[in-house]
Amino acid sequence: MIATPDRTPLTRRFFDRPVLEVAPDLLGRTLVRRTPDGAVELRLTEVEAYAGPADPGSHAYRGRTERNAVMFGPPGHAYVYFTYGMWHCMNLVCGPEGSPSGVLLRAGEILSGHEWAHKHRRTARNDRELAKGPARLATALGIDRRLNGIDVCAGPQAPMAILTGAPAPADQVLSGPRTGVGGEGATHPYRFWIDGDPTVSPYRAHTPRRRKSDAPSDAT
């Protein structure tokens, strides 16, 4: 049974901790997305931790770039990136400023604003699929690069906030390898999810992408 969600916003101090502490502690929290057309609320059910320079799977592994600059800033900000030429994904920056790490929001349960979310995720067959995966989550909440760098601890008028919600009990939190991460970071158990929750996305191991130059030739 899920406890009554607490409406108290999480403070910056919550995010100013090691990413492997913050990531599982985000499960069960309530994400509020505010827009001029209405608000959507989501209960976080799946996340992944990315530990910066110590983590080959992190965007910050090789240092600061224009793309990942937000990760090097203060905690409690959103790092939104564009991937595969079609999708957006969102991380929450953790740890002290200058030490880049973040938590990818992978999946969640829409609590309110279902109609608004379905307008953005027209291919979702049911409510469970609305935010089942990081790109789906971002799409359902209307998140794109315009929200990169926003402060989720800025107060009640901010476009996004994280509320205390109903944190998942420790015995319901599982961990394992991250989805689609290859190389040295493939086996890191940095993915966390609520056991048995129907909105959690399926695990997929990394599959190397074939370059055009590596494609089989028809020439004999």
TrEMBL record:
Record organism: Streptomyces milbemycinicus
Family named by the database record: Belongs to the DNA glycosylase MPG family.
SUPFAM superfamilies the UniProt entry points to: FMT C-terminal domain-like (SSF50486)
Region Disordered: start-end pairs: 188-220
CDD domains named among the record's database cross-references: AAG
Keyword Protein biosynthesis: no
InterPro entries hit by this protein: Formyl_transferase-like_C_sf, MPG, MPG_sf
Alphabetical UniProt keywords: DNA damage, DNA repair, Glycosidase, Hydrolase
Keyword Hydrolase applies: yes
Protein name: Putative 3-methyladenine DNA glycosylase
Enzyme nomenclature, EC number: 3.2.2.-
GO molecular function, a single term: hydrolase activity, acting on glycosyl bonds
Superkingdom as given in the UniProt entry: Bacteria
